[in-house]
Amino acid sequence: ACNEAAASTSEELMEKFFDEGKLSEEDMLRGLSAGIYEGSIVPVAPVSSLNGIGVRPLMYELAMYMPSPMEHTYHGINPKTKSMHIRHADMSESFTAQVFKTIADPFVGKLSYLRVISGKVTAGEPLTNARTGEVEKITKPLTVLGKKQIENDGIGAGDIGAVAKLVSAKTGDTLCDADRVVKLPAPVFPKPSLFMAVTVAKKGDEGKISSALARLMEEDPTLCYINNAETHQQVIGGLGEQHLDVVKAKLKNKFGVEIGLEAPRIAYRESIRKACQKQGRHKKQSGGHGQFGDVWIEFSPIGDTSIDFEFEDAVVGGVVPRNFIPSVEKGLRESCLHGVLAGYPVVFLKATLVDGSYHPVDSNDMAFQTAARLAYQDGIPKAKPTILEPIGLLKVTIPDANLGDIMSDISSKRRGTVLGMTAEDGMQTVEAEVPMAEMGSYTIDLRSMTQGRGSFSCKFVRYEEAPGNVQQKVIEEAKKEQEA
Protein backbone atom coordinates (compact mmCIF):
# COMPACT_ATOMS: atom_id res chain seq x y z
CA ALA A 1 0.00 0.00 0.00
CA CYS A 2 2.89 2.37 0.80
CA ASN A 3 4.48 1.60 -2.57
CA GLU A 4 1.25 2.38 -4.41
CA ALA A 5 0.66 5.59 -2.43
CA ALA A 6 4.20 6.82 -3.07
CA ALA A 7 4.01 5.89 -6.77
CA SER A 8 0.75 7.81 -7.26
CA THR A 9 2.49 11.14 -6.60
CA SER A 10 4.29 11.29 -9.97
CA GLU A 11 4.31 9.61 -13.38
CA GLU A 12 8.03 8.80 -13.06
CA LEU A 13 7.51 6.84 -9.84
CA MET A 14 4.40 5.16 -11.27
CA GLU A 15 6.42 3.85 -14.24
CA LYS A 16 9.14 2.55 -11.90
CA PHE A 17 6.53 0.81 -9.77
CA PHE A 18 4.95 -0.91 -12.80
CA ASP A 19 8.36 -1.93 -14.19
CA GLU A 20 9.98 -3.18 -10.99
CA GLY A 21 6.96 -4.07 -8.81
CA LYS A 22 8.25 -1.98 -5.94
CA LEU A 23 10.11 1.25 -5.21
CA SER A 24 13.53 1.76 -3.68
CA GLU A 25 13.73 3.28 -0.20
CA GLU A 26 14.93 6.56 -1.71
CA ASP A 27 12.01 6.70 -4.18
CA MET A 28 9.56 5.72 -1.44
CA LEU A 29 10.85 8.57 0.74
CA ARG A 30 10.59 11.03 -2.14
CA GLY A 31 7.06 9.94 -3.11
CA LEU A 32 5.62 9.83 0.40
CA SER A 33 7.14 13.22 1.29
CA ALA A 34 5.65 14.78 -1.85
CA GLY A 35 2.20 13.24 -1.17
CA ILE A 36 2.16 14.37 2.46
CA TYR A 37 3.20 17.89 1.43
CA GLU A 38 0.39 18.07 -1.17
CA GLY A 39 -2.15 16.56 1.24
CA SER A 40 -2.95 13.57 -1.00
CA ILE A 41 -1.41 11.14 1.53
CA VAL A 42 -2.38 11.11 5.19
CA PRO A 43 -0.08 8.91 7.30
CA VAL A 44 -1.49 7.08 10.35
CA ALA A 45 0.78 5.96 13.19
CA PRO A 46 -0.46 3.74 16.06
CA VAL A 47 1.22 5.01 19.23
CA SER A 48 0.75 4.63 22.99
CA SER A 49 2.57 7.46 24.73
CA LEU A 50 1.58 6.02 28.12
CA ASN A 51 3.47 2.77 27.48
CA GLY A 52 6.03 4.22 25.07
CA ILE A 53 4.89 1.93 22.25
CA GLY A 54 5.51 3.19 18.73
CA VAL A 55 7.05 6.50 19.82
CA ARG A 56 10.47 5.91 18.23
CA PRO A 57 9.03 4.86 14.83
CA LEU A 58 6.76 7.91 14.93
CA MET A 59 9.69 10.26 15.58
CA TYR A 60 11.64 8.59 12.77
CA GLU A 61 8.70 8.98 10.36
CA LEU A 62 8.24 12.62 11.32
CA ALA A 63 11.92 13.31 10.60
CA MET A 64 12.00 11.33 7.35
CA TYR A 65 8.63 11.97 5.68
CA MET A 66 7.22 15.23 6.99
CA PRO A 67 7.99 18.29 4.85
CA SER A 68 10.62 20.65 6.20
CA PRO A 69 9.47 24.20 7.02
CA MET A 70 12.39 25.39 4.87
CA GLU A 71 10.57 24.08 1.78
CA HIS A 72 7.36 25.97 2.46
CA THR A 73 6.22 29.54 1.80
CA TYR A 74 3.71 31.13 4.17
CA HIS A 75 1.07 33.59 2.96
CA GLY A 76 -0.47 36.17 5.26
CA ILE A 77 -2.48 39.39 5.01
CA ASN A 78 -1.84 42.80 6.52
CA PRO A 79 -5.00 43.48 8.61
CA LYS A 80 -5.04 47.19 7.74
CA THR A 81 -4.02 47.32 4.06
CA LYS A 82 -5.37 43.82 3.18
CA SER A 83 -2.24 43.30 1.07
CA MET A 84 -0.72 39.81 0.72
CA HIS A 85 2.71 39.12 2.26
CA ILE A 86 4.93 36.07 1.90
CA ARG A 87 7.15 34.71 4.65
CA HIS A 88 9.90 32.07 4.43
CA ALA A 89 11.61 30.03 7.14
CA ASP A 90 14.56 32.39 7.10
CA MET A 91 16.30 33.86 10.16
CA SER A 92 17.09 37.08 8.27
CA GLU A 93 13.40 37.94 7.60
CA SER A 94 11.23 39.95 10.00
CA PHE A 95 9.82 37.93 12.89
CA THR A 96 6.53 36.07 12.40
CA ALA A 97 5.17 33.30 14.63
CA GLN A 98 1.83 31.59 15.20
CA VAL A 99 0.41 30.43 18.54
CA PHE A 100 -0.56 26.82 17.85
CA LYS A 101 -1.35 25.67 21.40
CA THR A 102 -2.20 27.21 24.77
CA ILE A 103 -1.76 25.52 28.15
CA ALA A 104 -3.52 26.76 31.30
CA ASP A 105 -1.12 26.01 34.14
CA PRO A 106 -2.50 26.85 37.63
CA PHE A 107 1.04 27.68 38.85
CA VAL A 108 2.88 29.17 35.85
CA GLY A 109 -0.22 30.76 34.31
CA LYS A 110 -0.87 30.78 30.57
CA LEU A 111 1.79 29.08 28.47
CA SER A 112 1.65 29.80 24.71
CA TYR A 113 3.38 27.46 22.27
CA LEU A 114 4.81 29.25 19.22
CA ARG A 115 5.67 27.99 15.79
CA VAL A 116 8.26 30.43 14.43
CA ILE A 117 7.65 31.06 10.74
CA SER A 118 10.43 33.56 10.07
CA GLY A 119 13.06 35.57 11.97
CA LYS A 120 14.04 35.03 15.61
CA VAL A 121 12.46 36.03 18.91
CA THR A 122 14.38 36.89 22.08
CA ALA A 123 13.40 37.88 25.62
CA GLY A 124 12.05 41.40 26.13
CA GLU A 125 11.15 41.87 22.47
CA PRO A 126 7.83 43.72 21.89
CA LEU A 127 5.65 41.93 19.33
CA THR A 128 2.30 42.90 17.80
CA ASN A 129 -0.70 40.58 17.90
CA ALA A 130 -2.07 40.81 14.34
CA ARG A 131 -5.62 39.97 15.49
CA THR A 132 -5.95 42.58 18.25
CA GLY A 133 -3.23 45.10 17.36
CA GLU A 134 -2.00 44.93 20.95
CA VAL A 135 1.68 44.71 21.87
CA GLU A 136 2.90 41.61 23.71
CA LYS A 137 6.13 41.70 25.73
CA ILE A 138 7.96 38.41 25.34
CA THR A 139 9.40 36.79 28.46
CA LYS A 140 12.29 34.33 28.34
CA PRO A 141 11.59 31.89 25.46
CA LEU A 142 11.35 28.24 26.47
CA THR A 143 12.22 25.01 24.69
CA VAL A 144 9.78 22.34 25.86
CA LEU A 145 10.93 18.73 26.10
CA GLY A 146 8.11 16.67 27.61
CA LYS A 147 7.53 18.17 31.04
CA LYS A 148 10.86 20.00 31.01
CA GLN A 149 10.89 23.71 30.17
CA ILE A 150 14.40 24.88 29.26
CA GLU A 151 15.12 28.61 29.07
CA ASN A 152 16.56 29.70 25.75
CA ASP A 153 18.24 32.79 24.34
CA GLY A 154 15.88 32.75 21.38
CA ILE A 155 13.70 30.71 19.07
CA GLY A 156 14.47 30.85 15.35
CA ALA A 157 12.69 30.20 12.07
CA GLY A 158 11.41 26.64 11.60
CA ASP A 159 11.52 25.90 15.32
CA ILE A 160 8.86 25.63 18.01
CA GLY A 161 8.99 26.89 21.58
CA ALA A 162 6.89 28.48 24.27
CA VAL A 163 6.52 31.77 26.13
CA ALA A 164 4.63 32.41 29.35
CA LYS A 165 2.07 35.02 30.38
CA LEU A 166 1.06 36.51 27.03
CA VAL A 167 -1.84 38.87 27.76
CA SER A 168 -4.11 38.83 24.70
CA ALA A 169 -2.74 36.01 22.52
CA LYS A 170 -5.04 33.06 21.82
CA THR A 171 -4.56 29.83 19.90
CA GLY A 172 -4.30 30.70 16.19
CA ASP A 173 -3.05 34.29 16.68
CA THR A 174 -0.06 35.63 14.76
CA LEU A 175 2.73 37.55 16.55
CA CYS A 176 5.04 39.68 14.45
CA ASP A 177 7.24 42.78 14.28
CA ALA A 178 5.29 46.02 14.69
CA ASP A 179 6.57 47.46 11.38
CA ARG A 180 5.84 44.29 9.37
CA VAL A 181 2.44 43.14 10.62
CA VAL A 182 1.01 40.09 8.86
CA LYS A 183 -1.86 37.79 9.86
CA LEU A 184 -1.56 34.11 8.97
CA PRO A 185 -4.70 31.97 8.43
CA ALA A 186 -5.95 30.71 11.79
CA PRO A 187 -7.19 27.12 12.20
CA VAL A 188 -10.97 26.63 12.12
CA PHE A 189 -12.14 24.70 15.17
CA PRO A 190 -15.34 22.64 15.33
CA LYS A 191 -18.19 24.17 17.31
CA PRO A 192 -19.46 22.54 20.52
CA SER A 193 -22.28 20.07 19.89
CA LEU A 194 -22.97 18.44 23.29
CA PHE A 195 -24.17 20.70 26.10
CA MET A 196 -24.45 19.62 29.72
CA ALA A 197 -25.46 21.47 32.89
CA VAL A 198 -22.89 21.67 35.68
CA THR A 199 -23.71 20.53 39.21
CA VAL A 200 -21.33 21.40 42.04
CA ALA A 201 -20.12 18.62 44.33
CA LYS A 202 -19.05 20.97 47.16
CA LYS A 203 -20.91 24.05 48.32
CA GLY A 204 -18.95 27.24 47.77
CA ASP A 205 -17.23 26.01 44.56
CA GLU A 206 -19.69 27.87 42.29
CA GLY A 207 -17.39 30.89 41.98
CA LYS A 208 -14.33 28.73 41.26
CA ILE A 209 -16.02 26.99 38.32
CA SER A 210 -16.30 30.16 36.20
CA SER A 211 -12.64 31.13 36.59
CA ALA A 212 -11.39 27.55 36.13
CA LEU A 213 -13.47 27.03 32.96
CA ALA A 214 -12.27 30.38 31.60
CA ARG A 215 -8.70 29.10 31.96
CA LEU A 216 -9.54 25.81 30.25
CA MET A 217 -11.26 27.65 27.38
CA GLU A 218 -7.98 29.44 26.69
CA GLU A 219 -6.30 26.11 25.95
CA ASP A 220 -9.31 24.45 24.29
CA PRO A 221 -11.13 26.60 21.69
CA THR A 222 -13.73 23.85 21.14
CA LEU A 223 -15.01 24.25 24.72
CA CYS A 224 -17.67 26.83 25.64
CA TYR A 225 -19.29 27.96 28.88
CA ILE A 226 -22.69 29.66 29.29
CA ASN A 227 -24.26 30.98 32.47
CA ASN A 228 -27.94 30.64 31.56
CA ALA A 229 -29.79 33.31 33.53
CA GLU A 230 -33.20 31.95 32.50
CA THR A 231 -32.75 28.34 33.66
CA HIS A 232 -30.26 29.34 36.41
CA GLN A 233 -27.78 26.74 35.20
CA GLN A 234 -24.10 26.79 34.29
CA VAL A 235 -23.79 24.97 30.96
CA ILE A 236 -20.62 23.71 29.28
CA GLY A 237 -20.45 22.63 25.65
CA GLY A 238 -17.98 20.24 24.04
CA LEU A 239 -17.57 17.80 21.17
CA GLY A 240 -18.86 14.72 22.97
CA GLU A 241 -19.05 12.72 26.19
CA GLN A 242 -15.36 11.89 26.26
CA HIS A 243 -14.43 15.54 25.73
CA LEU A 244 -16.55 16.68 28.68
CA ASP A 245 -15.22 13.84 30.84
CA VAL A 246 -11.70 15.13 30.17
CA VAL A 247 -12.83 18.64 31.16
CA LYS A 248 -14.22 17.22 34.43
CA ALA A 249 -10.90 15.50 35.14
CA LYS A 250 -8.88 18.64 34.36
CA LEU A 251 -11.07 20.76 36.64
CA LYS A 252 -10.44 18.32 39.47
CA ASN A 253 -6.72 17.70 38.89
CA LYS A 254 -5.64 21.22 37.93
CA PHE A 255 -7.99 23.44 39.92
CA GLY A 256 -9.37 21.20 42.67
CA VAL A 257 -12.99 21.68 41.57
CA GLU A 258 -15.29 18.66 41.41
CA ILE A 259 -18.38 18.88 39.18
CA GLY A 260 -21.17 16.64 37.96
CA LEU A 261 -22.92 16.82 34.59
CA GLU A 262 -26.64 16.47 33.85
CA ALA A 263 -29.00 17.21 30.98
CA PRO A 264 -29.68 20.97 30.79
CA ARG A 265 -33.19 22.35 31.22
CA ILE A 266 -35.02 23.39 28.07
CA ALA A 267 -36.16 27.04 27.90
CA TYR A 268 -39.85 26.49 27.19
CA ARG A 269 -42.36 29.34 26.80
CA GLU A 270 -46.08 29.70 27.44
CA SER A 271 -48.76 31.48 25.42
CA ILE A 272 -52.56 31.61 24.97
CA ARG A 273 -54.82 30.40 22.15
CA LYS A 274 -57.98 32.51 22.57
CA ALA A 275 -59.00 35.99 23.74
CA CYS A 276 -60.34 36.61 27.23
CA GLN A 277 -61.37 39.70 29.22
CA LYS A 278 -61.01 39.80 33.01
CA GLN A 279 -61.21 42.28 35.86
CA GLY A 280 -58.47 42.85 38.39
CA ARG A 281 -59.65 44.68 41.52
CA HIS A 282 -57.38 45.44 44.46
CA LYS A 283 -58.92 47.05 47.54
CA LYS A 284 -57.24 47.19 50.93
CA GLN A 285 -58.18 49.29 53.94
CA SER A 286 -56.07 49.09 57.07
CA GLY A 287 -56.41 52.44 58.81
CA GLY A 288 -55.42 55.74 57.25
CA HIS A 289 -54.91 55.68 53.50
CA GLY A 290 -55.85 52.38 51.87
CA GLN A 291 -55.07 50.94 48.42
CA PHE A 292 -57.44 50.83 45.50
CA GLY A 293 -56.94 49.81 41.89
CA ASP A 294 -59.48 48.47 39.42
CA VAL A 295 -58.81 47.43 35.81
CA TRP A 296 -60.52 45.45 33.03
CA ILE A 297 -57.96 43.89 30.66
CA GLU A 298 -58.50 41.95 27.46
CA PHE A 299 -55.88 39.30 26.75
CA SER A 300 -55.43 38.01 23.19
CA PRO A 301 -52.80 36.02 21.25
CA ILE A 302 -50.48 37.83 18.81
CA GLY A 303 -49.98 36.31 15.36
CA ASP A 304 -46.61 38.06 14.93
CA THR A 305 -44.10 35.82 16.74
CA SER A 306 -41.44 38.55 16.69
CA ILE A 307 -43.38 40.39 19.44
CA ASP A 308 -43.30 38.82 22.91
CA PHE A 309 -45.64 41.28 24.64
CA GLU A 310 -47.75 44.21 23.44
CA PHE A 311 -49.68 46.60 25.68
CA GLU A 312 -52.47 48.87 24.44
CA ASP A 313 -54.28 51.61 26.35
CA ALA A 314 -57.92 51.74 25.16
CA VAL A 315 -59.58 53.45 28.15
CA VAL A 316 -61.77 56.50 27.55
CA GLY A 317 -63.17 59.16 29.82
CA GLY A 318 -60.27 59.03 32.28
CA VAL A 319 -61.65 56.03 34.21
CA VAL A 320 -57.99 55.12 34.84
CA PRO A 321 -55.84 58.27 35.27
CA ARG A 322 -52.98 58.67 32.77
CA ASN A 323 -50.32 58.54 35.48
CA PHE A 324 -51.39 55.01 36.49
CA ILE A 325 -51.33 53.51 32.96
CA PRO A 326 -47.54 52.74 33.08
CA SER A 327 -48.13 50.97 36.43
CA VAL A 328 -50.70 48.67 34.81
CA GLU A 329 -48.22 47.83 32.03
CA LYS A 330 -45.42 47.24 34.54
CA GLY A 331 -47.60 44.85 36.56
CA LEU A 332 -48.45 42.88 33.43
CA ARG A 333 -44.86 42.69 32.18
CA GLU A 334 -43.69 41.38 35.54
CA SER A 335 -46.52 38.82 35.58
CA CYS A 336 -45.56 37.56 32.10
CA LEU A 337 -42.25 36.31 33.46
CA HIS A 338 -44.13 33.42 35.08
CA GLY A 339 -46.79 31.42 33.24
CA VAL A 340 -49.72 29.66 34.88
CA LEU A 341 -48.97 26.14 33.56
CA ALA A 342 -45.31 25.49 34.38
CA GLY A 343 -43.90 28.89 35.34
CA TYR A 344 -42.20 29.64 32.01
CA PRO A 345 -42.33 33.17 30.50
CA VAL A 346 -45.49 34.02 28.57
CA VAL A 347 -44.94 35.27 25.01
CA PHE A 348 -46.92 36.40 21.94
CA LEU A 349 -49.44 38.07 24.27
CA LYS A 350 -51.38 41.31 23.74
CA ALA A 351 -52.98 43.01 26.75
CA THR A 352 -55.50 45.82 26.17
CA LEU A 353 -56.62 48.00 29.07
CA VAL A 354 -60.30 48.62 28.25
CA ASP A 355 -61.85 49.90 31.48
CA GLY A 356 -61.36 50.46 35.21
CA SER A 357 -61.91 52.80 38.10
CA TYR A 358 -59.93 54.61 40.76
CA HIS A 359 -60.20 56.30 44.15
CA PRO A 360 -59.04 59.92 44.44
CA VAL A 361 -57.21 59.20 47.72
CA ASP A 362 -56.42 55.48 47.93
CA SER A 363 -55.29 54.82 44.34
CA ASN A 364 -51.52 54.65 43.74
CA ASP A 365 -48.95 52.99 41.46
CA MET A 366 -48.61 49.84 43.57
CA ALA A 367 -52.39 49.33 43.77
CA PHE A 368 -52.74 49.38 39.97
CA GLN A 369 -49.72 47.06 39.52
CA THR A 370 -51.40 44.60 41.90
CA ALA A 371 -54.76 44.96 40.10
CA ALA A 372 -53.04 44.17 36.76
CA ARG A 373 -51.46 41.04 38.27
CA LEU A 374 -54.85 39.89 39.59
CA ALA A 375 -56.40 40.33 36.13
CA TYR A 376 -53.51 38.32 34.64
CA GLN A 377 -53.80 35.50 37.20
CA ASP A 378 -57.55 35.22 36.61
CA GLY A 379 -57.56 35.78 32.86
CA ILE A 380 -54.69 33.68 31.45
CA PRO A 381 -56.06 30.32 32.75
CA LYS A 382 -59.33 31.10 30.93
CA ALA A 383 -57.58 31.89 27.62
CA LYS A 384 -56.53 28.30 26.76
CA PRO A 385 -52.88 28.54 27.88
CA THR A 386 -50.39 26.33 26.08
CA ILE A 387 -46.71 25.45 26.27
CA LEU A 388 -44.35 26.32 23.41
CA GLU A 389 -41.13 24.43 22.77
CA PRO A 390 -38.01 25.76 20.99
CA ILE A 391 -37.47 24.44 17.47
CA GLY A 392 -33.97 24.21 15.98
CA LEU A 393 -32.75 24.12 12.38
CA LEU A 394 -30.64 20.98 12.10
CA LYS A 395 -28.02 20.57 9.36
CA VAL A 396 -26.42 17.13 9.44
CA THR A 397 -23.77 15.92 6.99
CA ILE A 398 -23.37 12.16 6.66
CA PRO A 399 -22.13 9.54 4.16
CA ASP A 400 -24.64 8.38 1.53
CA ALA A 401 -24.87 4.94 3.16
CA ASN A 402 -26.26 6.42 6.41
CA LEU A 403 -28.98 8.55 4.81
CA GLY A 404 -31.85 6.14 5.57
CA ASP A 405 -30.92 5.73 9.24
CA ILE A 406 -30.59 9.49 9.74
CA MET A 407 -33.93 10.29 8.04
CA SER A 408 -35.69 7.64 10.14
CA ASP A 409 -34.08 8.91 13.34
CA ILE A 410 -35.09 12.53 12.67
CA SER A 411 -38.71 11.79 11.79
CA SER A 412 -39.59 8.91 14.11
CA LYS A 413 -37.39 9.37 17.18
CA ARG A 414 -36.98 13.15 17.36
CA ARG A 415 -40.33 14.44 16.11
CA GLY A 416 -38.49 16.30 13.35
CA THR A 417 -39.54 17.45 9.89
CA VAL A 418 -37.08 16.99 7.00
CA LEU A 419 -36.91 20.12 4.82
CA GLY A 420 -34.51 18.97 2.12
CA MET A 421 -31.24 17.29 1.11
CA THR A 422 -28.17 18.16 -0.92
CA ALA A 423 -25.51 15.70 -2.14
CA GLU A 424 -21.81 16.36 -2.70
CA ASP A 425 -18.77 14.05 -2.99
CA GLY A 426 -20.43 10.98 -1.51
CA MET A 427 -21.88 12.93 1.39
CA GLN A 428 -25.46 14.03 2.06
CA THR A 429 -26.46 17.18 3.93
CA VAL A 430 -29.93 16.90 5.44
CA GLU A 431 -31.81 19.96 6.68
CA ALA A 432 -34.60 19.49 9.19
CA GLU A 433 -36.52 21.28 11.92
CA VAL A 434 -36.30 19.42 15.22
CA PRO A 435 -37.49 20.25 18.76
CA MET A 436 -34.45 21.27 20.83
CA ALA A 437 -35.64 18.98 23.65
CA GLU A 438 -34.90 15.98 21.40
CA MET A 439 -31.34 17.04 20.54
CA GLY A 440 -29.65 16.40 23.89
CA SER A 441 -28.00 13.08 22.97
CA TYR A 442 -27.71 13.67 19.22
CA THR A 443 -23.91 14.04 19.28
CA ILE A 444 -23.55 10.56 20.76
CA ASP A 445 -26.27 8.98 18.62
CA LEU A 446 -24.96 10.46 15.38
CA ARG A 447 -21.45 9.22 16.12
CA SER A 448 -22.86 5.75 16.72
CA MET A 449 -25.01 5.73 13.55
CA THR A 450 -22.23 6.99 11.26
CA GLN A 451 -19.16 5.43 12.93
CA GLY A 452 -17.91 8.93 13.71
CA ARG A 453 -18.16 10.21 10.11
CA GLY A 454 -21.20 12.48 10.61
CA SER A 455 -21.25 16.10 11.73
CA PHE A 456 -24.06 18.52 12.48
CA SER A 457 -25.04 22.01 13.55
CA CYS A 458 -28.27 23.07 15.20
CA LYS A 459 -29.47 26.60 15.94
CA PHE A 460 -32.69 27.94 17.39
CA VAL A 461 -35.21 29.31 14.87
CA ARG A 462 -38.58 29.74 16.61
CA TYR A 463 -41.07 28.58 19.23
CA GLU A 464 -43.89 26.21 18.35
CA GLU A 465 -46.78 24.67 20.32
CA ALA A 466 -45.69 21.40 21.91
CA PRO A 467 -47.77 18.20 21.56
CA GLY A 468 -50.14 17.36 24.41
CA ASN A 469 -48.03 14.54 25.88
CA VAL A 470 -44.93 16.77 25.91
CA GLN A 471 -46.88 19.58 27.59
CA GLN A 472 -48.12 17.21 30.28
CA LYS A 473 -44.59 15.99 30.96
CA VAL A 474 -43.26 19.57 31.23
CA ILE A 475 -46.05 20.55 33.65
CA GLU A 476 -45.41 17.49 35.84
CA GLU A 477 -41.67 18.18 35.97
CA ALA A 478 -42.35 21.82 36.95
CA LYS A 479 -44.62 20.65 39.79
CA LYS A 480 -41.94 18.27 41.08
CA GLU A 481 -39.38 21.09 41.13
CA GLN A 482 -41.75 23.35 43.03
CA GLU A 483 -42.46 20.62 45.59
CA ALA A 484 -38.75 19.95 46.00
SSE layout and pairings?
Blueprint: H1 2-7, H2 11-20, H3 25-38, H4 55-65, E1 73-77, E2 84-88, E3 96-105, E4 109-118, E5 120-122, E6 126-129, E7 135-137, E8 142-145, E9 148-151, E10 154-156, E11 160-164, E12 174-176, E13 194-200, H5 206-219, E14 224-228, E15 233-238, H6 241-255, E16 259-262, E17 269-272, E18 276-284, E19 291-301, E20 309-313, H7 325-335, E21 349-357, H8 365-379, E22 385-399, H9 403-413, E23 417-424, E24 427-435, H10 442-450, E25 455-465, H11 468-483
Parallel strand pairs: 20-21
Antiparallel strand pairs: 1-2, 3-4, 3-12, 4-11, 5-10, 6-7, 6-12, 8-9, 13-15, 13-16, 14-15, 17-22, 18-19, 19-21, 22-24, 22-25, 23-24
Helix pairs in contact: 5-6, 7-8
Structure description:
- The protein is an alpha+beta fold.
- The model has no long low-confidence stretch (mean pLDDT 90).
- The protein has eleven helices and 25 strands.
- β18 (276-284) and β19 (291-301) form a beta hairpin.
Structure keywords:
six-stranded antiparallel beta sheet, alpha+beta, about 475 residues, five-stranded antiparallel beta sheet, elongated, 11 helices
Residue share in β-strands = 25-35%
Strands ordered across the widest β-sheet:
7-6-12-3-4-11
Continuous helix count: 11
Low-confidence stretches: none
Cα end-to-end separation? 63 Å
Quick take:
The chain is α+β, with helices and mostly antiparallel strands.
